[in-house]
Amino acid sequence: MNLREKYNIPHDSIITIAGTVGVGKSTMTQALADALKFKTSFEKVDTNPYLEKFYADFERWSFHLQIYFLAERFKEQKKIFEYGGGFVQDRSIYEDTGIFAKMHYENGTMSEVDYETYKNLFDAMVMTPYFPHPDLLIYLEGSLDEIISRIQLRGREMEKNTPIAYWEEMYRRYEEWIDNFNACPVLRLNIADYDLMNEKHSIEPVLEKVGRAIQHSRRWKTRQLIK
Ligand SMILES: Nc1ncnc2c1ncn2[C@@H]1O[C@H](COP(=O)(O)OP(=O)(O)O)[C@@H](O)[C@H]1O
Ligand SMILES: Nc1ncnc2c1ncn2[C@H]1C[C@H](O)[C@@H](COP(=O)(O)O)O1
């Protein structure tokens, strides 16, 4: 029996990994996909034409970057559903608006008119009854110190040169955002409770929780359909 069957995870599941920059989403995405033999959908950082410019000048590039991310994530989302699931996705589409666009608007680095245009587009594309939501959003959380040290360790220059206050604010916003998030079922994992770098088997307790959460949410969906 493979790990997917062992933990009762349906072959067509769609799992998205959320959490602040540097918390370990990409690492978890790869580990889960390897264990489940699922496909991955990664954020493309190296080929993003706006990201470095954005870190150098938030005000000038924030709208361009949000439109770019929205288009990329929407294309990925479409691909995932066209394949019929069996995917782990690195970062959810919900974080773009709920964290990043909102934060830049509220800090004055995205104008009101740009923010309204962006939100209208996001709502028309995503917040409709026709947009299929993931089976599960895994939210990774941990201490701010650990997350900042991971950003430093990973070593993307644009992130290393960004003031710590930016990551602190993002961290605080994520905590508030996840407490109010209800677009799909959520599983919260603390990064102190597993170590994917040094203990390969630490993915198994995660799989067990994922299996239980997806079974629970699918039973709930079936009951809603029968009602
Ligand atoms: N469980 C872990 N223990 C220690 N370091 C980790 C762990 N998971 C990820 N990292 C490291 O933290 C950094 C950020 O991880 P990454 O998966 O790229 O985060 P994200 O995709 O959330 O930005 C990377 O250098 C990665 O190797
Ligand atoms: N929607 C976004 N707006 C601004 N910046 C974003 C957005 N989505 C991702 N990013 C940035 C943050 C990081 O520098 C890279 C990759 O994110 P990571 O959390 O490391 O996967 O893109």
TrEMBL record:
Transmembrane segments: none annotated. Residues 15-212 form the Deoxynucleoside kinase domain. GO terms for molecular function: kinase activity. Keywords: Kinase, Transferase. The keyword Kinase applies. The keyword Kinase applies. Belongs to the DCK/DGK family. This is Deoxynucleoside kinase.
